[in-house]
Amino acid sequence: MIHDLPEHDKSCEKCGNFLSQIGAEEREQLETISVRVIVKKHKRLKYACRGCGETIVLAKGPFEAIEKGIPGPNLLAQVLVDKYADHLPLYRQEQRFARIGLPINRSTLWNWVRLSAVSLVPLVEAMKQDLLVIGHIFSDDTTMPTLREQIPENLGKQAKRNYMWVYTGLSKENKKFPIVIYDFAEGRGSEYPLAFLKDFKGYLQADAYSSYNPLYECLEGSDLAQCIEACWAHVRRKFVEALKANPNSIAKEVLEMIGDLYKREKEFREKGLIAEKIAQRRQKFSKLQLDKIYAWLITYEPQVAPKGLLGQAISYALSNWKALTVYTQDGRLEIDNNRSERCIKGVVLGRKNYMFMGSVQGGSAAATIYSLIETCKQNNVDPLAYLADVLAKIPTHPNKQIHELLPYHWKPPQSHQIPSGQDKKVA
User: Fold this and answer.
1) pTM of the model
2) What are the tens digits of pLDDT across the range 236-273?
């Protein structure tokens, strides 16, 4: 945008000579361009033999994300990212499309989501294979209300309480890539993590939820090393609640000691220590701090009301003490289960907006799309660009090369890359 003087102002007021340009002042302003929807019309040219009249050949059409579907991959990616990354329910997307003169019913949008999820399932299955060989996985879950099937027996009944489980970890490759997979389930029993982890060998870090207990018995004699059902973040949270209820509570003492444990862990991360070194330093320093915390808990347990917030916090820590100290034995382990809890936050935010899943099929589709979007986010990949490219490629991509399309291996097309040293342009 060039702003010039009017012609009558380009002469000198004193001598009358024409003014010469000697420079310019520049500043940048951020602006948006309204959403623009286009229609692509595909023409397949047809040829025939004029000699014999028996041969007719039709040019092949493009492979599509949804066969014979109206939406292109960019539009599909936008709908998926709006719903599962930015938590915009389909009925709100329907309203937004209507404002720009594009009436798309929410049932049509859901059909696009469903068919897109079906085509993306092979990617999540490939990610699961990478996750199960890591040897160290974090897990958590959250409720996911789901509407019942519309049959006479279900009339008047409330939505079912289904669950969204999450499993996450860092890949075994030289460069550690986060992998996040969601699994929609109709319950919260131990059979669900057991089914997901049936081929897993290593450590599973989770909270102290009782459904993980049967993993010990069901996997007894297998190569599953340990299910660590404890999290120092949960312990700390309970003491924080006790301190909020009573600012003069002695809970402040133990919170300071727990804070020292976390300071030590931060130091290990900042120094980039390998697992063996971390285990050694935990045995040398963290274990001494844990002994102090344990002594504090034992001292004050009989002195506080068992049913009070402080008494419950102390009881929780002592009942899970063995599991709370396992992390000092292996440098690969982490002090808490926050890695998986952070992955749950996106699902919880989405649930506050769309309230419930419309069906079990909707929950499964959400798990597939959430898996890819959250893995993109944790690997600093733009989920919109990723899904638009992958949805266009996956119909013809060889199954043997499916790993090329996973978020942590994906390379953006040249059209999505901005060469260094050049200005960014809004297209």
Assistant:
1) 0.85
2) 999 999 999 999 999 999 999 999 999 999 999 888 88
The Cα 230–Cα 139 span in angstroms is 11
Q: Mark whether 218 and 236 lie in a shared domain.
A: no
Between vectors from CA 268 to CA 265 and to CA 273, what angle results, nearest 5°?
A: 145
String of b and e for 329-359 (b: at least 16 CB within 10 Å)?
Answer: ebbbbbbbbbbbbbbbebbeebbeebebbbb
Same domain? 216 vs 344: yes
Q: What 8-state DSSP symbol labels residue 148? A: P
With bands split at pLDDT 50, 70 and 90, how would you rate the model's confidence at 415?
A: low
Task: Give the Cα separation of 85 and 335 in Å (integer).
Answer: 28
At what angle are helices 73-84 and 338-354 packed, to 10 degrees? 100
Are 393 and 249 in the same domain?
no
d(CA 65, CA 393): 8
CB 140 within 8 A of CB 206: yes
**Residue matched to tokens 């702003």:** 3
Q: How long, in residues, is the chain?
A: 427
Q: Six-digit token pair at 366?
A: 């959400």
Using only C-alpha atoms, the chain has a radius of gyration, in whole angstroms, of 29
Q: How far apart are the first and last CA of the chain?
A: 16
Separation CA 235–CA 258 (nearest Å): 9
- Residues 95, 100, 101, 107, Cα dihedral to 10°: -30
Question: What's the pLDDT tens digit per position in 31-72?
Answer: 888 778 889 898 999 999 998 888 999 998 888 888 888 899
Q: What integer pLDDT is reported at residue 365 of this predicted model?
A: 95
Asked whether residue 52 is assigned to any structural domain, the reply reads no
> In which element (H, E) is residue 357 found?
none
Identify the pLDDT of residue 223: 47
- The residues near 80 (Cβ < 8 Å, ≥ 6 apart) are 113, 116, 369, 373, 387
Q: What residues make up the domain containing 154?
A: 117-230+337-414
